[in-house]
Amino acid sequence: MNAFQLVALPVVVGLAGLSALALVKGWTGRKEGPAWIGVWVAAGIAIARPGLTMDAAQAVGIDRGADLVLYCAVIGMLVGFFMVYTRLRRLRRDVTLLTRHLAIRDAAGGNAAAAPDKPSRV
Amino acid sequence: MGTGGKTPSRDTDGSVFVVTAAYNEAGAIAEVLRALRSEYPNTVVVDDGSTDATAELAARNGAFLLRHVVNCGQGAALQTGISFALKRGAECIVTFDADGQHRVEDIATLVAPICRGECEVTLGSRFLGSAVGLPWPRRVALKFAVWLTRIMSGVRLTDAHNGLRAFSRRAAERIDIRMDRMAHASEIIDQIRESGLAFREVPVQIRYTTYSLRKGQTLRGGLHILVQYLLGRVVR
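Above: the input entities. Below: the structure tokens describing the complete assembly.
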């Protein structure tokens, strides 16, 4: 086992453990938790058995295992970026709907306390 | 609308609502509202999370005041105002900028074809009317927007990003502005086309002032709107 493996493997195992704990405790969703555990397990295998990534790379027509890992990481990050972006848009949309609801509710009900907050017709 | 098919020079029966989205417009909102409310008593100001005295001035000048607790963007604010106006029984809804570059007299020209039942939406056009003090870089940007609208929406207009427009009640009920920020202008045109609403362009005058130019879009802002619009078409 080389120095990198000695450092990286415990980190990856720790992260997999944390993801499992988060799943058990319900801190992550039922889809997210297993997905993260899968990512850490795959990373652990790639670190512990570099030969496996080389075999997998050659099976799909890529020369080096490191290239396969890099391509997968880039694609994974792009997918992740898109998912975060769509989620942010949904969140922003929800904030807008909530803001709009409050504005119209207060205008219709006229229930705000201070004069400037009170939707008014003077 | 109670206009009997005539061209109204003012809102006599309270069926016309003017919606103004305002964000930090303390420098112009009072004057705009004074002019508006003398002709159109049902003026709705949506204060979009301003940090200056916009809300106080709007309330003091007799407008219906709706407040966004956080800044959501002009598109979001207009949709809030339109929803409110519909709840209040508006038969015709006009959107009007808060920075003083629109003329109250043009509202009657916008509303008239809708009152006569000739169309459901009227869109103000500064290029059919006039644009006083329009700087040439902005003219180029606006012409580019017209060209882009023609390509993206398939709608032939002379002015694609004019904030002065009017909707019948039926049209306002069908329009649902989802692009919160400035890209809503293109989205509205898309929705008009998709809903099959009859529309017409109407000549209006836009008066650019130092204040309105300072508040207006920069080239960078224009590019940002374009990106927002394109992304908004992909990710709903």
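Note for the figure: DSSP finds nine helices and seven strands in chain B.
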